Amino acid sequence: MPGLELEQEKPLVASGAMEISVSRAELLRELTATQSVVERKTTIPILSNFLIEAADDRLTITATDLDQSIKTSCAAKVKKPGACTIPARKLYDYIKLLGDGDISIKLMDNHWVQIRSGRSNTKMVGMARANFPQVPAFPEAGVTKIPSASLKNMIGKTIFAISNEESRYTLNGALLILKAESLAMVATDGHRLAHVEKTGESLANISGEKRTLIPRKALSELQSLLSNSDAEFVDFSDDDHTLFFKVGHRTLTSRKLTGQFPNYEAVLPRDNNKFVVVRSEDLMASIQRVAQFADERSGAVKMRLEQNELKISSSSTDSGESEDTIETPYNFDAIVVGFNSSYLIDFLRAVGNAGEVRLEFKDAQSAGQVRPEDADDEYRYRYIIMPMRI
């Protein structure tokens, strides 16, 4: 991967001398934030290690799997600056088991690392710091500040619609669309599409429109970083090969997805003139009950809209059949349409139990659109699902 090569990198400081003292609570917090990136099953052993660097009363921790990396830091008493690499999972699991207080970490001969805490004294087998891949530095030019709350909300409303099929490469991420006064995110797997837009923003360094395809794995890491940070903004930047997200004192880098995201505007329904409004909580409960009896492979449930009622039903030869009725105003022609119940449940989980949702239809063969009914919501959120033959 360009930008993350396994090449010899000159250490920041001479290795072989590192000795530090660090708070167990602070160290554990940063290890927790980075350990999810560490490569578990790898043919390159160094990728199973954390890179630990100590200088200027700061301990910096880096983890990478070559596709993405996280770099974070915490305060430390640096007696001797230096760098080492330590098996990530082993270190994380061990530090979790130590009592509170300060931990001393010292680099020994042959890349062994001594860890002392209270009456515990452990030596771990590390690897040469020079073998750790170089992680690209955050570019200071062209940085856009994205409101953290907006970005986190949009990831939560789209990430579940990203394709899991690796062959559909350009669908393995979500498209982030930045404009000077708005941001939007779109994800699709070819069977459903989630689109959310937030207007009224003021984004610097954006002229016209900037489109960026962010891999699912990076979105998942970003979601986790945002959930554990009170940073008001995310600093976003990119170069030809890499995406950079700075959340507080932590930086996530990710390889860019190449290729053209589909023309999603072309599939957004324009003439779904039949609609029904139901409470999100009621719809979720009904679908979950009925889906217990749906065909295991397809998960299909049937929606029948008739005068002032929505009937949701399913049946399978293995488990039986089930039907739920929700009374709700409906004054259009009767319609019967089938959907994957899991797709509907994903959307309802994303909007939460509060409020109402609007289901919009054209006919049994056309895509349905679901969206929150609350017109005052600052996020414009819509979810398009292809129907199933039933």
Mean pLDDT equals 91
- The termini sit apart by 45 Å
Largest sheet: 8 strands, antiparallel
Q: What would CATH call the class of the largest domain?
A: Alpha Beta
Structural class based on helices, strands and sheet pairing: alpha+beta
- In the CATH hierarchy, what is the superfamily of the largest domain? DNA Polymerase III, subunit A, domain 2
How would you write the strand order of the largest sheet? 6-2-3-4-17-16-15-10
In helices, the fraction of residues equals 10-25%
Number of domains: 3
Strand content: 35-45%
Rg measurement, Å: 25 Å
Give the low-confidence spans. Answer: 1-16
Please provide the count of β strands: 25
Description:
The chain has 390 residues and is an alpha+beta fold. It has 3 domains: 19-131, DNA Polymerase III, Chain A, domain 2 (Roll); 144-264, DNA Polymerase III, Chain A, domain 2 (Roll), CATH 3.10.150.10; 269-385, DNA Polymerase III, Chain A, domain 2, CATH 3.10.150.10. Helix content is 17%, strand content 41%. The protein has helices at residues 24-34, 88-97, 148-158, 216-227, 280-291, 341-351, and strands at residues 19-23, 49-55, 58-64, 68-75, 77-80, 82-87, 102-107, 112-117, 120-125, 144-147, 173-179, 182-188, 192-199, 209-215, 233-238, 242-247, 250-255, 274-279, 300-306, 309-316, 320-327, 335-340, 356-361, 368-372, 379-385. The protein has an 8-stranded antiparallel beta sheet with strand order 6-2-3-4-17-16-15-10. Helix 1 runs antiparallel to helix 2 and helix 5 packs antiparallel against helix 6 (341-351). Residues 1-16 have low confidence and may be disordered.
